[in-house]
Specification:
Layout lengths: L6 H16 L14 H4 L5 H22 L5 E8 L2 E8 L7 H21 L4 E6 L4 E5 L1 H10 L2 E9 L2 E10 L2 H5 L8 E8 L8
Antiparallel strand pairs: 1-2, 3-4, 3-7, 5-6, 6-7
């Protein structure tokens, strides 16, 4: 019986393959930029060949994950203002199984509770237009968005004089929501909390 890899092992395998592709050790040679041989001979395609080789490998890993029921979840930890939360999150290189989605849905209320606790005095902004624009909102707006979504995730940007906490409220497949590929079946809204007088940067 062949060994079935764990979530952690798949993450390591993908990281090693990504490095091999970036170094040019893996190329998908049949990739062309325009499809026109006259034009393509003048365009460097090695970057596209590296990217495509990795994407193909990643797709194979995603199939392997689903065939062998290997979770895409990792335990993530975030600390803000002396408060710490550990919660499940889909690794950025893996996909979520159906059971993973149920776990994410079950964790949503804890994530929201933590977010409300650490952002109480902060200004809130909803990002739109691929995070190029922001509109200031209030807590009740966040609550309305939260009611329409299935799961949540957190990020923070912090240095000695700046703090931004980003709440992602999503639905459907997290990997499709994150890269904005799956609308309307998958998607997310991003709420940015910053100290009063600051604007979001993330």
């Amino acid at each position: 019986m062949s060994k079935v890899y764990t979530t952690e092992e798949l993450i390591q395998i993908l990281a090693a393959e990504r490095q091999a592709c970036l170094k040019g050790e893996r190329l998908k040679l049949e990739v062309t930029v325009s499809g026109n041989p006259l034009i393509d001979q003048f365009i460097r395609t090695d970057g596209l060949q590296k990217f495509t080789a990795y994407q193909d490998f990643k797709a194979a890993i995603h199939n392997y994950q689903q065939e062998n029921y290997i979770s895409g979840l990792i335990l993530h930890e975030i600390s803000v203002k002396g408060q710490t939360l550990r919660y499940p999150k889909v690794d950025s290189e893996l996909v979520a199984l159906k059971s993973d989605l149920e776990t994410l849905k079950a964790a949503k209320n804890n994530i929201l509770e933590f977010w409300y606790k650490v952002t109480g005095e902060m200004d809130l902004y909803l990002s739109f237009n691929n995070s190029k624009q922001y509109q200031q909102i209030i807590t009740s707006d966040v609550e309305r968005i939260a009611q329409r979504t299935e799961w949540a995730s957190l990020w923070k940007w912090e240095n000695s004089n700046f703090l931004e906490i980003i709440l992602q409220l999503g639905w459907g497949q997290p990997e499709e929501a994150y890269y904005k590929r799956g609308r309307p079946h998958s998607g997310s809204e991003y709420i940015h909390a910053v100290n009063p007088g600051n604007r979001p940067i993330g």
